[in-house]
């Protein structure tokens, strides 16, 4: 009796072989890490945008998370650029994952900015009340 070799019979043999070959592939080259000056410029642009927009968006009554979401939207391009610059030099796959989820750290940054702004406003109001 003659045996016929089907594709489904070869799958268990081919999968480990393909995985073995895939492990031999070289990783694509990493992009060079951003210089300190590039990181500084990207950080300054993002913080300047947050500073400029927090005054207009914060009414002092709305939830700080809501204001932070507005800040992330208003500063979308500068915050995204900051994420791109700070992720330079990371290996391809962690970098791609980071850039896919860059808004989460941006929300935290914006929320901290809103809270710091509100604290500054409260302290200024207290100083004005105490002034003769």
Any descriptors?
single chain, 132 residues, mainly alpha, elongated
Contiguous uncertain segments of 5+ residues: none
Indicate the radius of gyration in whole angstroms: 25 Å
Strand composition percent: under 5%
**How many beta-strand elements?**
0
Count of alpha/pi helices: 6
Alpha-beta classification? mainly alpha
Number of domains: 1
- Tell me, rounded to a whole number, the average pLDDT: 82
The global form is elongated
Bin the helical content: over 70%
Amino- and carboxy-terminal Cα gap: 108 Å
How do the SSEs run, as a string of H and E?
Answer: HHHHHH
| Largest beta-sheet characterization | none
Question: How does this structure look, described?
Answer:
This protein has 132 residues and is an all-alpha fold. The protein has one domain (33-130). It has six helices and no strands. It has helices at 7-23, 36-57, 64-74, 76-87, 92-100, 103-130. Helix 2 (36-57) runs antiparallel to helix 4. The chain is elongated, with a radius of gyration of 25 Å. The protein starts with 6 loop residues before the first helix and ends with a helix.
Kindly summarize this structure in a few lines.
The chain has 132 residues and is an all-alpha fold. It has one domain.
Compile the SSE list and pairings.
Elements: H1 7-23, H2 36-57, H3 64-74, H4 76-87, H5 92-100, H6 103-130
